[in-house]
Target: Zf-HC2 domain-containing protein
Amino acid sequence: MDCSDSRTAVSARIDGEAPPPEIPDGVLDAHLRECAACREWARRAERLRELTTRLSEW
Ligand SMILES: [Zn+2]
Model:
């Protein structure tokens, strides 16, 4: 899988949206296991999501 596709799926997951049909959860998880760059990207995206959620609650 292409890293940019995996990041699209990660951001959909973080936003609570359905994953793109071509990237089911299992495929995404497999990519995250072997791709440190996408794991790091996912970690940051989750952190950012947390911060923006908190800000919108003010
Ligand atoms: Zn990747």
